[in-house]
Structures are given as structure tokens and as C-alpha cells.
Specification:
The complex is a heterodimer of chains A (289) and B (242). Chain A has one domain (2-117, 137-280): ABC transporter involved in vitamin B12 uptake, BtuC (Orthogonal Bundle), CATH 1.10.3470. Chain A is 75% helix and 3% strand. Chain A is built from 11 helices and 2 strands. Chain A has helices spanning 2-31, 38-56, 60-81, 91-117, 142-164, 166-176, 178-183, 188-213, 221-235, 240-261, 266-280; strands spanning 132-135, 138-141. A two-stranded antiparallel ribbon of chain A has the order 1-2. In chain A, a hairpin with a 2-residue loop joins strand 1 (132-135) and strand 2 (138-141). In chain A, helix 1 runs antiparallel to helix 10, helix 2 crosses helix 8 (188-213) and helix 9 packs across helix 10. The longest helix of chain A has 30 residues, at 2-31. Chain B has a domain at 1-79 and 189-242: 3-Layer(aba) Sandwich (Rossmann fold). The longest helix of chain B has 16 residues, at 171-186. With 242 residues, chain B is an alpha/beta fold. In chain B, strands 6-7-8-3-9-10 form a 6-stranded mixed β-sheet, sandwiched between helices. Chain B has helices at 42-50, 72-78, 95-105, 112-125, 141-154, 171-186, 198-204, 222-227, 229-236; strands spanning 4-13, 16-26, 31-35, 57-62, 65-66, 80-82, 159-163, 190-194, 207-212, 215-220. In chain B, strand 7 (159-163), helix 6 (171-186) and strand 8 form a beta-alpha-beta unit. In chain B, helix 4 (112-125) crosses helix 5. The A-B interface holds A 163, 166, 169-170, 172-173, 175-177, 179-188, 238, 288 and B 50-52, 71-73, 76-77, 81-82, 84, 88, 90-93, 97-98, 100-102, 104-107, 109, 111, 137, 151-152, 154-155.
Chain lengths: 289, 242
């Protein structure tokens, strides 16, 4: 019974791992740039939700409608002033410089967050926050369930955009072969810009959901970047639903091992999984090639 | 007025002259063949015209306006499309989506139902009826060539550059490919062909330019080119008669 309960909680946190990973994998897949500040963008999204709630009592799920566009806008700025200069560089230079930019951003965002929001751990506690659905003796916390469902819906909407919309197809074409894409008339720089901003918005939405279901503090960025990275390696690039499924899997594995081996090994299991997949199936569970 | 004109275009790669001061003109509606041995600069020439590479010197004009140094997507939107020697369809997209990319961003962009209709028409025109929903990665080599062509046509170009369209095809596929090219020609599209299969090139082109080591060494109608001693020499070597 305890095991089942833990596994359910694991799946619920896994959905958010999946959402965080989808954003990272979108930027990495399209720009071929690893944004290690992804978790810190998530942290900022969490704070936007938190302050909207505590200052103006905006419902946290409603506030996502403000979080997504504001982080999207931040993504546009970050791309234009920083990442734009590395995407065209040779592979080696691009990877190195994008890591440097990412780690720099991590420090800046963290310190700004400590400065302005203090280092306290915060979370959004709504009136319905304590409610849970009880099925067969298992309690499913309502907000966490809603978060995972919302995460799934956001990814579904994004997938439809990437399949159907003109710009969505342009982003996918650019991810596949930017040279051919540009010869087909796609302004590749613009496709990079949209993809980066979308990835940032996804991080923001994930952060908002984390602040309701769990808690945020200025230093959670690295942890979430790491989770997103593990999930991206697990699932492989190129599929948003793959990322979501990978997230659920990681959450599930963590919860299971936490219970069987003790909480201390929780993180180790995720990283162990990461290594096993890298060795045995480097393209990821759902990736091709 | 020539549709495309190159004036003394040169390109060097780290000291090697890949294209040496080449001048040539393509008239509207004509089929120009470009031939030459490996490494003679044919593909580099295509890359210069389509904007993938920027020439070190010289001017490229399209419809009278200079396009030298423009980014590839701008050049595409002015009406120049190309196919690739080693075809590169977007493998993760379906055949139809590949074509929709070209339709959405080309010279005369279409969207919505107009784009869908046009995509069906293009699929049919290259012989890919019924394969629209297949991911490009599941298509055969010949079908990928067809798709590459359809995607280039989707940008509704005035000038189409075909880079070794018949490379790696068996005799039957080659004759199919020649049929496709003839139909494009009949529709009034201006074509520039780079091809290794010399007889096919001589048969399809109205005029031929021969490159050797980056320089234009001959130009003229196919019958004259086939007999030109300089051309015979670069392909077969000079034969020392006593």
C-alpha cells in the first residue's frame, strides 16, 4: 500500500520532470545548444506564480496564462542578446560557448533571486491545496494531479502547433536540417528564436506548476536542469510525448527505489539510469537513429 | 534579359580556387547543362547561386538584380530552388509536410486549404500519389529523390537547379527521371542541370557549359560540345598519335 502510494506520487512529480525536459529538448533539438540555465528559467516561472498569488491572490493555475507569455518574452530577449551569437558557430565552439552562457545565466538568476526574493523556500498554498481524491485507500493530491494533466495538455497543444502550424513545421524542418531548411526559404534565425522562446515558456509553465505542487527557492535551478537532462537522455530528442513518458518513468523509478533502497539513493538511481541508457541506447528510449 | 547571370564569380577554399572567374548566363525557359570531372566546381557553383556559399569576388544577378551575399532563404524567395546531390528530405516529417514547408516559405507562399490542394497536386506530379502521409524516412531512394524535387518545386521557383538528379539510379529509374525533367521543361521552367551521366545531359540540355578545375573551358550546343577536343581531352585524356 505504501509502495503504491509512493509510486503514484512518483508519477505525479514525473509529469513535471517531463514538462521541464520537453522545453530543454526543444531548445537542444532545434538550436543544438544545451541551455543549462533551463532549471533557473523554471525557477523564475515559479516565482512569477508565487508573487502573483501572494500579492494579488491570483489562482496559480490561472496565473500560468501570464507566466507563459512573460517567460516567452524573456526567452526572446535572452536569444537576441546572448544565444543568437553562438548558434551559427562551429559545433565545438557552439557547445562550449553555450555552456558558458548557460552557467553564467544560472549564477545571475540565482543571485538576483536571492537578492530580491530572499533564500526562503516558498510555495503556493491555495484553499483547495490539501484536497485529495481517494481511490481504494490511495490518496491522490488534487493539485498535483491537476498539474500533471495540465502539463500533458500543454505538450499536446505544442505538438499540434509543431505538426500543423506553418511556423511549427518550419521549426521541425530547421531541427532536421537547417541548411536545407534555409534553402527552402525558411528564415532559420527566426525559427531558432521561436523555438528558444517556446522552450523558455515551457520552463516557466513547469515552474508555475512546481510552485503549487511542491516548493521553490532560488537554488532549485540546477536540480531541475539535471532532472530535465536525465529525462532527455532517457527519452531521446525529437518527441515531446517521449519526454513526458521519460519524465513519468524517472519519477516512477525514483519513488520505487526511494522506498526499496531508502531516500538517500533517490538521486543516485536517476543518475544510474542515465548512465545505463547512455551506454546501452545512446539515442534514448524513444529516439530514432 | 538573362534570368540568371554570373559575372567573374570566384570562390576559394583556403587557397584552393574552387571556382575561377566564371561568367555565364541562363536565358528564361532554357535548359543549361553543366558538366565537368569530379572537383571541377559544379556543386560549388550551385552553392554560390543558391546562397549556401558567398563568392569571394564577382556578381550574381537574378532577374537583373544582384543577389550576391543574400542569405539562402531570401534567394529562395526570389525564385531559385535547388535539389541536392545526396537528397536531404526532412526525414522526421511526412512527405506532405515536407512539401508544405516549401509551399509555406517559398517564392509565392500558400497556406491553409490552398496549400493542401497544391501539395496533393505536387505529390501526383512527381509520382508520389498516396504516399503523402508516409514519413520521409520510410521512402525508397528514388521516392526520396521525387520528394526532394517536389519540395523544391513547392517553393514555386522560376529557376531550378538540379544537382546530379540521376546519380545512383538504375537505367529504368534514369529514364523515369528524364521524363520528369522533360515535363518540367515543357512547363516553361528554367533549369540548370549538373550531371555525371554525360549522354543524359547532352540529350536534355539546349546548351552546355563545361568546367574544369573551376574554370569554364567550353560552352555551346550539345552537338558541338560532344565533339570539342578540349572536352574530350578532360574526360578521356589526350591521345598521342604519331
Amino acid at each position: 500500500m505504501i509502495l503504491a502510494q509512493q509510486l503514484i506520487l512518483g508519477l505525479l512529480v514525473g509529469g513535471l520532470y517531463g514538462l521541464a525536459a520537453a522545453g530543454l529538448s526543444l531548445t537542444f533539438g532545434v538550436l543544438r545548444v544545451l541551455n543549462v540555465a533551463h532549471g533557473d528559467l523554471l525557477m523564475l516561472g515559479g516565482y512569477v506564480t508565487f508573487w502573483l498569488f501572494s500579492l494579488w491572490h491570483v489562482d496559480p493555475f490561472l496565473s500560468l496564462a501570464a507566466v507563459a507569455p512573460s517567460l516567452f518574452f524573456l526567452g526572446l530577449i535572452l536569444y537576441c542578446v546572448l544565444f543568437r551569437f553562438v548558434v551559427r558557430a562551429r559545433e565545438e565552439v557552439r557547445i562550449k560557448n553555450s555552456l558558458l552562457i548557460g552557467f553564467g545565466l544560472t549564477l545571475v538568476f540565482q543571485i538576483l533571486a536571492i537578492q530580491f526574493f530572499t533564500a526562503d523556500e516558498r510555495s503556493v498554498t491555495t484553499a483547495y491545496g490539501g484536497e485529495a481524491i481517494k481511490i481504494a485507500g490511495l490518496a491522490i493530491p488534487l493539485v498535483r494531479l491537476a498539474s500533471v494533466v495540465l502539463a500533458f495538455l500543454v505538450l499536446a497543444a505544442l505538438q499540434i502547433f509543431l505538426n500543423r502550424a506553418r511556423w511549427g513545421r518550419a521549426i521541425r524542418a530547421t531541427a532536421e536540417d537547417w541548411e536545407a531548411a534555409s534553402l527552402m526559404g525558411i528564415p532559420v534565425g527566426r525559427a531558432y528564436l521561436w523555438a528558444f522562446a517556446l522552450g523558455t515558456a515551457l520552463a516557466g509553465v513547469a515552474g508555475g506548476l512546481v510552485s503549487v505542487s511542491y516548493s521553490i527557492s532560488p537554488t532549485i535551478g540546477l536540480e531541475w536542469t539535471l532532472k530535465a537532462l536525465i529525462v532527455t537522455v532517457l527519452a531521446g530528442l525529437g518527441s515531446l510525448f517521449g519526454s513526458f513518458a521519460g519524465g513519468l518513468l524517472l519519477g516512477f523509478a525514483e519513488a520505487g527505489s526511494g522506498l526499496l533502497l531508502g531516500g538517500a539513493y533517490r538521486e543516485a538511481v536517476g543518475l544510474g539510469l542515465f548512465l545505463i541508457i547512455l551506454i546501452t541506447r545512446p539515442q534514448g528510449l524513444f529516439g530514432s537513429r | 534579359m538573362a534570368l540568371l547571370s554570373l559575372e567573374n564569380v570566384s570562390k576559394t577554399f583556403g587557397g584552393v580556387m574552387a571556382v575561377k572567374s566564371v561568367s555565364l548566363q541562363v536565358e528564361p525557359g532554357e535548359v543549361l547543362g553543366v558538366m565537368g570531372p569530379n572537383g571541377s566546381g559544379k556543386t560549388t557553383l550551385f552553392n554560390l547561386v543558391s546562397g549556401a556559399l558567398v563568392p569571394n569576388s564577382g556578381t550574381i544577378r537574378f532577374k537583373g538584380a544582384p543577389i550576391t551575399g543574400l542569405p539562402p532563404h531570401r534567394i529562395c524567395r526570389q525564385g531559385i530552388a535547388r535539389t541536392f546531390q545526396l537528397v536531404r528530405p526532412f526525414l522526421g516529417l511526412t512527405a506532405r509536410q515536407n512539401i508544405l514547408v516549401g509551399l509555406g516559405y517559398g517564392c509565392r507562399p500558400l497556406s491553409g486549404s490552398a496549400a493542401r490542394e497544391k501539395s496533393e497536386e505536387l505529390l501526383a506530379s512527381v509520382g508520389l500519389e498516396g504516399l503523402g502521409d508516409r514519413p520521409a524516412s520510410t521512402l525508397t531512394a528514388m521516392d526520396r529523390k521525387r520528394l526532394d524535387l517536389a519540395r523544391a518545386l513547392a517553393t514555386s521557383p522560376d529557376l531550378l537547379l538540379l544537382d546530379e538528379f540521376m546519380a545512383g539510379l538504375n537505367p529504368q529509374e534514369t529514364s523515369e527521371a528524364m521524363g520528369l525533367i522533360r515535363r518540367l521543361q515543357a512547363r516553361g521552367l528554367t533549369l540548370v542541370l549538373v550531371e555525371h551521366i554525360v549522354w543524359a545531359l547532352l540529350e536534355l540540355s539546349q546548351r552546355i557549359v563545361v568546367l574544369s578545375a573551376g574554370e569554364k573551358i567550353a560552352e555551346g550546343p550539345p552537338t558541338a560540345i560532344a565533339r570539342d577536343p578540349r572536352v574530350v581531352e578532360i574526360y578521356l585524356g589526350s591521345i598521342p598519335f604519331p
